[in-house]
Specification:
Layout (H helix, E strand, L loop, with lengths): L2 E3 L6 H12 L18 H12 L4 H8 L4 E6 L2 E8 L12 E5 L10 H8 L13 E5 L16 H15 L5 E5 L2 H12 L4 E6 L15 H17 L1 H8 L1 H10 L1 H15 L12 H14 L2 H4 L1 H4 L14 E4 L11 H7 L3 E5 L8 H4 L1 H12 L7
Parallel strand pairs: 4-5, 4-6, 6-7, 7-8, 8-9
Antiparallel strand pairs: 1-2, 2-3, 3-5
Helix pairs in contact: 1-2, 4-16, 5-6, 8-9, 9-10, 10-11
């Protein structure tokens, strides 16, 4: 399978059209006197849109992104975009363990960059160069520059694509996997499907088995499941519409960059460990880099495919490879009991609840994530 270099190049006319749309944005009035209570705060959105239209330098952001080792390959009949960081390690050191890092929604490869750099070049951040990893950061199918496969978008299906990318395309015999959200599901399926070649799996969004027939939930597990259901009742509106009417909402977001930004930022604020202040975790330029990538590629609608196809996902089988959980500090996982993870992972070797870093932990706490991955994968580098 051929791998080719890739560069991001948004045409000038796309940027001109984007700016024109932003300057013509019509804003709604807030539905609640409490800021953010009814979704993205209109005043906050107004400020972001103004900066996006006249202040944000996309060309500088694009140039910075193009300093990264972007690659493209066709896998399972569809293009896959990924960034391939080669380990910076001492000459003569053993070959590094490769890692594949998988993002979720409404995210992108940008989420993984800060942690990936620390893993591939630890010496640049005061670490031991002997602990460097090769790091592969793919864009999920239908996200940005990766095309949708012909088959339905399931976590298992993506795992099959990723395994082909890592082994057939890039030639790795053995590798580790990390992810959260959708990426966490893909990571688990990698461990379940390919135990001979996947050294271990590490997730931040913990799992809950849907099969309690053999062993009913414990009181602690049921307390968590009830709390999760209560949280979802106020949060899952976005999910319901993307699961049932993705093309309807996509039509609006494909036509309005302000609407697209509102849809994305709402979740970046809710799910980050930011205490309600999204700027604590995400500077404006990073948020608008992500939004511009979605806008320029027209991929917000295809990013919904994994929601529409979600019923096609099968129950996760037991995962026997070494596993680790660094639990995300976000409302959905408050009070999550370790025993739920142990229902799926038969060899849970690392369990950590740092209470720092939310849904986008690799961006929010890159030093923490890099340290957690080194701790878990370090002993697995040369394990048979």
């Amino acid at each position: 399978m051929t791998v080719t270099p890739f560069r991001i190049a948004v045409p000038d006319d796309v940027l001109s059209d984007l700016r024109a749309r932003l300057t013509r944005t019509r804003f709604t009035t807030a539905s609640d006197s409490a800021h953010w209570a009814a979704g993205t705060d209109p005043d906050h959105l107004r400020d972001l849109v103004a900066y996006w239209a006249d202040g944000f330098d996309w060309r500088a952001a694009e140039a910075a992104l193009n300093e990264l080792p972007h690659q493209m390959a066709e896998v399972a009949g569809a293009p896959v975009h990924f960034i391939h960081f080669r380990a910076r390690r001492p000459e003569g050191a053993p070959a590094p363990l490769p890692l594949v890092l998988t993002h979720g929604w409404p995210s992108s490869f940008v989420e993984m960059l800060r942690a990936a750099r620390r893993l591939a070049d630890p010496a640049a951040y005061g670490g031991d160069p002997a602990e460097a990893f090769d790091v592969v950061v793919p864009s999920l199918p239908g996200f940005l520059y990766s095309g949708l496969p012909t088959a339905p978008f399931t976590r298992r299906g993506v795992a099959e694509i990723w395994h082909s990318l890592m082994t057939e395309t890039l030639g790795y015999d053995r590798y580790g996997a990390f992810g959260g959200d959708i990426g966490g599901g893909v990571t688990q399926w990698l461990g379940a499907l390919y135990p001979e070649q996947v050294a271990g799996v590490h997730i931040t969004s913990a799992v809950a088995s849907a099969d309690f027939e053999k062993e009913p939930p414990t009181p602690a597990e049921q307390t968590y499941l009830d709390a999760l259901a209560a949280y979802d009742s106020g949060d899952q509106g976005y999910s319901e519409i993307m699961c049932t009417r993705p093309d309807t909402i996509a039509a609006a977001l494909m036509d309005s960059p302000a609407g697209l930004l509102a849809w994305i930022v709402d979740k970046y604020r809710d799910w980050s460990d930011c205490d309600g202040d999204v700027a604590r975790r995400w500077d404006r330029d990073t948020l608008l880099t992500v939004a511009t990538l979605y806008w320029a590629t027209g991929s917000i609608g295809s990013s919904f495919r994994q929601y529409y196809d979600y019923p096609l996902n099968k129950r996760m089988p037991d995962i026997t490879v070494p596993a680790a959980v660094t639990l995300s500090h976000e409302p959905a996982f408050a009070g999550y009991p370790k025993s739920l993870a142990e229902r799926v992972f038969t060899d849970l070797r690392h369990w950590s609840t740092p209470r720092r870093g939310g849904h986008f932990m690799a961006h929010e706490e890159p030093d923490q994530v890099a340290a957690e991955l080194r701790t878990f994968f370090g002993p697995l580098r040369n394990a048979s």
